[in-house]
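Researcher: Please translate sequence to structure tokens.
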Amino acid sequence: MSTSVQVDPVMERSYGGVGRCKCSFWFAVAHDIVGVFIMMVGVFGGLVIHDLFIYAGAIIIFLSLIWWVFWYSGNIDVPPEELEDDVGMIKLKNSGLSQVVRRVSDRLSSRIRNSFRKNDRYTREDPTGNSRPSNTGTEVSLSTIYDTTFASSSSKEVVRETLSV
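Model: Translation complete:
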């Protein structure tokens, strides 16, 4: 016995004109207009600092590209069918094999992740009885070879210094 379920199509809002992101659109247009105006003042104004105006106008026009990208990416329409899997809902047609593969992948990655989180460092106890990692307070010998001819023209010597880490 099967029952039929009738699903009404989702009606998306229709955005006329400039789309959904009107603020980004108008900011981009305003930056373009101001940039072109400043650039034209630099070209035709006859000012001594005309280069400043030309470069400033070009930079403002370039910065308007940021607003154009915001406007364009905000108006991209993605069908709801493609969004189902992105919000955590598993598609019914792929629920069998993909669900098993996802579980195996999650278990494997969690085991690998947990193996790195374990505290496998060697520890030793200090005189107070507290355990601490064995690599703290280790003295490391650092050898530096340098030419002493700049200071005195005698000979080259190897200097050994102790570095506490």
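Researcher: Any highlights?
Model: The helical segments are 22-44, 50-74, 80-83, 95-117.
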